[in-house]
Every structure is written in structure tokens, then in C-alpha cells.
Task: inverse folding
């Protein structure tokens, strides 16, 4: 034994050779211990970083998915739920911008209805309107040291759901903050121009109705996006028969708000003022008396057949440009559909007479330009239509609009002269025309003659349909 | 060399030999040698974790601000309302807080106080979809606080001269002409 720093023990005598010496030598023991500990500590630290990194990536994927969901919901409002490729594109673009590791195949989008129980979105039943968008991002991330422990990768899946609002986002006169809106909303306002709404008969209600139109127009201009479109279809007893072939004859066809806002708002503002005096009808060709469709496209000033206007609006929105778009119809009327017996056969309107330019009624409330047999069924004889006939038609056309994924809202502008019970009955019926989550408002009699009436307030509620918001996030 | 000198030399050798043979305090000496890199590693981990924590908070703040834009609650930055002509803001300091009408305010809301953060926005109204990018940045050394490696020189620090940036991108809702 050499170089030993202690006295040899008897047992050492048997130990000779280098291995024995190494075992007996206790010098630098702490160094050896530390040299084993440090790599272990570093490994544990790296594993911790690995875990934190994975959690951090999961959190970021979650955020990316949330932002993608809101973008997809906005896309549905912009281009329509049927344009799946565009919705997918919006979602993927935003998801990738927030988590570059995602590929387009990592992001899946489901547009449909949100089930609050299962917390998932399923494609809507045929004819139903989509109410939510679900975006799921699935990605596999690599670990740094996880491979040593059999976990070379981690699969992360995050799901977020954003609503496509079909119910008002605010209440009463509290529309959402400017900007809580989406783009490319199309609104057709159906204006009742029956005589009680027309100054030519001395009624002062045209101004408020136009002010409601203006409120919707301004709302759309400020919030509906650059490509939002606005139009007005007037209706009375007879339909706006030329609304498709001669739209320029009306106050405005469905045109881009961005390009026509200044002109149109000025026109409506002027009509609001002038329309309340006797010459109002000359400024705005709302209706004519007597009606002569061969000379102009304006409807008669008598009666109220909202089914005809609904039909016209549905036809406008049936164009390919509006398929799957965010289409709204807002009906403003002051009464239940009226056949106006004073116009034709007592007890009803005879649509087969020449007084109506040869236009005859069909059972769906739409008039044919050829002399086919008029049909006022199911409520009366084939040639004399009653109020009930027109009401049935209105219900039918509203349902068709709903099936075409058009949101239908109604504003009942209650006539001050109508008894409360009748007002209530009319309110209930008109409210039943609402489709796909549209709103219904009844303007009170006391407020109906002021431009800042409840009509205006109610009409501005249409703004509340444009926003999208996150309703469920993360899983 | 006389006998006295030899005796002194022998005594010196004895001290060193004795020191070499002495086992007392060996653990303390070895620990002292080992603890230096150990502490550097420990505090390094703390600094790295603080940096990651700060980055995480920054990312959350950026995402929160993005969500405010995505849901249409905010449509302005320091340059005004989002538009094609408003190409974004230059770096806006979080201290003092920007006005509440600006998106920078929401990006600064939940950030820690131990560092100076800046927010930069960049919008693109002409793309499909129109987007806004919100970036929060901070000096990495300030974010890490305990960058002990900087003790070896200002250019030797792990984070020296580096900037942490958290970015979030959202679709702009509403008008973006």
C-alpha cells in the first residue's frame, strides 16, 4: 500500500491492486457526487421546461382557436354559412397567424347549432339557421427530453365555439357599441304604404316610418360593412309587381349602402319632412291612387298585403349573390293585412277586376300578370279575398322566408284609433311572422307620430344582430 | 546548507504534507467549489422561468387585446380608428397607461410592473380577412431580473441585448375601410 493518507487497517492487507485502492480512497467524494447530481438536476430542469413549453403551446393553441372561432363566426355573417370554404379560410388564417405550427388540415370548422348540454355544435337541420361556429385545432408538438421517457411528442387538441347572433345582443334602445358588428348585411325593409301611412290622405305617419327606414339605413351604413346592402319595398293591397323588373321605380332597390348612403339618406330625410304635407306623395312615389301598374311600378295606396312584399323580398334574396348571405327583412306595418273592402267587392277585394290592372291573386299572396283564375283560398271564395286570406298568405310567405334562412323582423306601428284589444291581437299575429330569431316590436300609439318614436328605436335594434361573440372556449 | 535551514525546509514540507493528508474540512472545500456553478444553475433556472413567465403574461395580454378587437369592442389604436390609411402605431409605452379607447390600453392591462413594456399594432384592412397584429415587447434582461450570467460581462448575459416579443393576430370586426 502506497500513498495512503491514513494508517492501514488489518483488513486492508488483503486488498491489493488498483480497484481496491480506488474503493478505499475517499478523496473527492463530494465532487463525484455532485458530478452525478448536476446532470440529473439539469435533466429534471429540462423536463420541467419541456412540460412548461408544452403547456404554453397548449395555451397559445387555445387562444389561436378562440380567435379563429370569432373570425369564422364573422365569416358566416359575411359570406354565409353555406360558404364553408371561406369560413374555413378565415378560421385557418387567424389560427395560423397566432400559432404558425398549425396547418390548414389541423383546423376544422363546424357551422351549425350550439347544444348547451353537450357543449358541441352540430350542423343545423335542413332549413334551420346556423347559430354558432365550432373550431377545433389539433396539433402534435415535439418534446425536448420526453423522447427519453417514451414521450417524443404531445398531441394537443383545443376547441372553441363562437356564436352567430340571431337574437338581439342588447336591450331596448341600447344597441351594441359601434363596431360590434359584422360586414355585408343585407336588409330589405317592407314599408306599409296603405293610406294610413300616407300623407296624401292626411295621415301623419309616413314621417315616422321613413325615420325608421333612415335609422336602419344609418345603422347599416355605420356598422354593416362596406358591402352592406339596403332596399325598401313598399306594399299596399296590391303587390309591388315590378319590383324585380323595374326596381328603380321604388324608393330604392337593394343596393350597396356604401355607394348610395348620401343620396338615399338625403332622399329619406326630405321625404320625412315633405311626406307629412299634402305634396308628400309627389316627392316619394310611394303609392298611387288609382293604381295603374302599366304606367308606374308603385302600388296602390289602398289595402295592406304584406305577403306580396314578402314574396318580392324572397325573390330578391333568391339571387345567387345573396345565397347564404346575412339577409334580413324588416316589416313595418300599422295593421293586419287588409283587403280594403272599399276598393272592391264589399266584404273583400276582388282581384279579378280590371281596377287592379288585370293582376290576379294566387293562393300564396302573389299576383300573376296573366289572367289565371284568382284563388283566395282557403278562407273565402276564389275571387273575393278577405283579410283572413291575406293574413294566411302573410304567415305562409314568412315561413318561406324562414326556410330560405332569411331573418324576418316585424315592427307593429299601432294605430292610435284601434282599440287596445284589437291592438293586442294584431301585435300577436304580426309577432308570429318573425323568423330565425328576428325581433318584434310594437310602437305605442302615443309615440307613433314623432320621428323619434319607438318605431325608430325598434328599427335600430336591427343593429344588434350583427355581432358575434365567444360563447364557449377551450376543452 | 546548514542544519538549521534543513530543519526549516523539513518543517515546511511537513506542513504541506500534513495539509495534504488532513481530511478535515474537505467537504466544505469541495462544496465551496461545487456550489458556485450550482447556484448559477439554480438562479439561471429562476431567471429563465421568470422570463418565460413574463413572456406568458405578455402573450395573455396580447391575446386579450386581440379578443377585444375580434369581438368588436375596440376599433382604435394610438393612431385613431382602424382603417387602410392607419397602418398601425409605433411603439406605445405602457407607462403611463394609454387611453381606454385604444387597443394599447387593453394590451398593457395585466403586465407586471418590474419591466417597461411597449405595444405596437399593425392593421391590414385590405386582406381577407382584415386583421390586426398586436405585439408587446420588453427587454429580456428586465424580464428575467436575475440574469446572473450578466455578471461575466454586459455582453455575456443570456438575455443581454435581446427583446422578448409576444404577438397576437385578430380579425377586425366592423368597419375597416
Result:
Amino acid at each position: 500500500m502506497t500513498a495512503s493518507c491514513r494508517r492501514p487497517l488489518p483488513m486492508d492487507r488483503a486488498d491489493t491492486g488498483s480497484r481496491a485502492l480506488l474503493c478505499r480512497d475517499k478523496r473527492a467524494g463530494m465532487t463525484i457526487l455532485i458530478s452525478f447530481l448536476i446532470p440529473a438536476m439539469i435533466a429534471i430542469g429540462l423536463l420541467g421546461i419541456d412540460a412548461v413549453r408544452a403547456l404554453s403551446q397548449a395555451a397559445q393553441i387555445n387562444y389561436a382557436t378562440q380567435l379563429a372561432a370569432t373570425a369564422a363566426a364573422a365569416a358566416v355573417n359575411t359570406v354565409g354559412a353555406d360558404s364553408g370554404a371561406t369560413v374555413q379560410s378565415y378560421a385557418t388564417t387567424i389560427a395560423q397567424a397566432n400559432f404558425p405550427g398549425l396547418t390548414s388540415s389541423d383546423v376544422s370548422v363546424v357551422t351549425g347549432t350550439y347544444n348547451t348540454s353537450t357543449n358541441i355544435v352540430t350542423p343545423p337541420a335542413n332549413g334551420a339557421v346556423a347559430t354558432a361556429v365550432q373550431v377545433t385545432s389539433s396539433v402534435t408538438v415535439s418534446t425536448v427530453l420526453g423522447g427519453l421517457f417514451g414521450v417524443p411528442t404531445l398531441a394537443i387538441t383545443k376547441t372553441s365555439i363562437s356564436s352567430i347572433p340571431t337574437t338581439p345582443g342588447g336591450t331596448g334602445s341600447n344597441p351594441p357599441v359601434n363596431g360590434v358588428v359584422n360586414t355585408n348585411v343585407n336588409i330589405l325593409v317592407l314599408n306599409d304604404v296603405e293610406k294610413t301611412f300616407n300623407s296624401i290622405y292626411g295621415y301623419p305617419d309616413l314621417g315616422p316610418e321613413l325615420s325608421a327606414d333612415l335609422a336602419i339605413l344609418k345603422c347599416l351604413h355605420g356598422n354593416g360593412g362596406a358591402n352592406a346592402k339596403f332596399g325598401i319595398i313598399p306594399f299596399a293591397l296590391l303587390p309591388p309587381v315590378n319590383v324585380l323588373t323595374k326596381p328603380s321605380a321604388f324608393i330604392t332597390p337593394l343596393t350597396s349602402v356604401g355607394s348610395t348612403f348620401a343620396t338615399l339618406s338625403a332622399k329619406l330625410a326630405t321625404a320625412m319632412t315633405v311626406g307629412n304635407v299634402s305634396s308628400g306623395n309627389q316627392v316619394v312615389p310611394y303609392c298611387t291612387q288609382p293604381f295603374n301598374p302599366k304606367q308606374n311600378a308603385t302600388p296602390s295606396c289602398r289595402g295592406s298585403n304584406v305577403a306580396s312584399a314578402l314574396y318580392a323580398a324572397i325573390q330578391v334574396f333568391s339571387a345567387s349573390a345573396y345565397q347564404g348571405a346575412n339577409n334580413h327583412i324588416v316589416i313595418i306595418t300599422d295593421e293586419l293585412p287588409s283587403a280594403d273592402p272599399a276598393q272592391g267587392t264589399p266584404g273583400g277585394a276582388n282581384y279579378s277586376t280590371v281596377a287592379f290592372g288585370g293582376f290576379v291573386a294566387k293562393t300564396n299572396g302573389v299576383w300573376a300578370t296573366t289572367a289565371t283564375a284568382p284563388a283566395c283560398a282557403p278562407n273565402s271564395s276564389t275571387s273575393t279575398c278577405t283579410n283572413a286570406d291575406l293574413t294566411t298568405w302573410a304567415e305562409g310567405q314568412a315561413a318561406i322566408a324562414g326556410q330560405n334562412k332569411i331573418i324576418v323582423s316585424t315592427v307593429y306601428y299601432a294605430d292610435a284609433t284601434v282599440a287596445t284589444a284589437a291592438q293586442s291581437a294584431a301585435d300577436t299575429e304580426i309577432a308570429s311572422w318573425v323568423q330565425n330569431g328576428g325581433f318584434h316590436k310594437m310602437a305605442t300609439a302615443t309615440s307613433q307620430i314623432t320621428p323619434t318614436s319607438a318605431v325608430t328605436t325598434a328599427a335600430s335594434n336591427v343593429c344588434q344582430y350583427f355581432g358575434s361573440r365567444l360563447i364557449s372556449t377551450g376543452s | 546548507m546548514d542544519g538549521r535551514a534543513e530543519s526549516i525546509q523539513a518543517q515546511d514540507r511537513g506542513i504541506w504534507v500534513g495539509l495534504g493528508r488532513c481530511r478535515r474540512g474537505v467537504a466544505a472545500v469541495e462544496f465551496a467549489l461545487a456550489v458556485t456553478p450550482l447556484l448559477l444553475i439554480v438562479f439561471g433556472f429562476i431567471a429563465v422561468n421568470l422570463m418565460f413567465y413574463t413572456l406568458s403574461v405578455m402573450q395573455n395580454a396580447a391575446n386579450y387585446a386581440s379578443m377585444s378587437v375580434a369581438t368588436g369592442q375596440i376599433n382604435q389604436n394610438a393612431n385613431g380608428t382602424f382603417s387602410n390609411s392607419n397602418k398601425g402605431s409605433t411603439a406605445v409605452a405602457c407607462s403611463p397607461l394609454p387611453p381606454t379607447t385604444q387597443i394599447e390600453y387593453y394590451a398593457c392591462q395585466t403586465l407586471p410592473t418590474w419591466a417597461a413594456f411597449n405595444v405596437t399594432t399593425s392593421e391590414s384592412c385590405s386582406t381577407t380577412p382584415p386583421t390586426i397584429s398586436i405585439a408587446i415587447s420588453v427587454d429580456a434582461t428586465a424580464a428575467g431580473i436575475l440574469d446572473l450570467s450578466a455578471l461575466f460581462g454586459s455582453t455575456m448575459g443570456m438575455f443581454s441585448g435581446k427583446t422578448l416579443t409576444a404577438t397576437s393576430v385578430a380579425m377586425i370586426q366592423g368597419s375597416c375601410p
About this structure: The longest strand of chain A covers residues 132-142.
